[in-house]
Amino acid sequence: MIRKMRSKPKELELLGCLDSRSELMDKDAQSYLNSLQGFDGECEFDKLLSEALDGKCSIVLNDLLLEHNGTMFQIDSLVITPQKIIVFEVKNYKGDFYAQGEQWFSKSGTEIKNPLHQLRRCEAMLRQLLQSLRINLLIESHLIFINPEFYLYQAPIDPPIVFYPQISRYLKQLNNGLIGNVISAKQEKLASKLLSLHIEESPFTRLPDYEYSEVRKGILCPECHNGLTAFPRLKLLCEKCGHVERIDAGIIRSVREFQILFPKRKITTNSIFEWCDVVESKLTIRRVLQKEMKQQGQGQHCYYI
Ligand SMILES: [Zn+2]
Description:
The protein is of the alpha/beta class. Helix content is 39%, strand content 23%.
């Protein structure tokens, strides 16, 4: 059973909005693409895991941020079974890499962080945390390479690594080993304990600086991020890819982006009229806001939440 689903980190949502509405600096754009690729890989693994595991024999907690003795550690996926806890670190690397002992390099020779070190650190931190809670359970950890286009030359013959072609076989074996077991109150309690310790907001999130005046206004195409233009009968058209949608849908999406980018700015008919840019009438904006959001205050001072 999945007890904690993965949701898109706020940081990724914000960088996505910013990427389509401004020019991200090269390093920010690269870090956004890396994070997005990592997130996609994790979601892909969530899907495989939920399809492979019998929900009665295991509890899955995705994306946990925990802390022990002042040190934080993040777990991509954690599976609690009656016999053990399994920690998964998922990497969505693409391309050719090689390992030289404990050091890993991209094919061009640039050294990258050895993900096995991260996995071992995470396992050690979790072990210490569980010990402090007086929970004695075997911990097993695995590094999953989810991308079929990843290749590691001179890979260590190390059981913790599961490469893409091995994933389905590995998950099948894992599930076969669990059949006949049933999750007990003890494991349920452990899952609730770990969930209660999960830290919602990562303090490591670093976001680029941006101002309202620098960010492109308008309603952007959900397919290609081109600015949409008004089209008859309350519709919007993308002149680049041909996408057509109802104006209401475009306004709602833009309000959401406005909230993500500028959480401190009030949502009013005027602010959204300016933000959406292409809507001809303020009355349309007001109608959509009244329908979709909750009005606070009256008259000139009214805003929406
Ligand atoms: Zn488009």
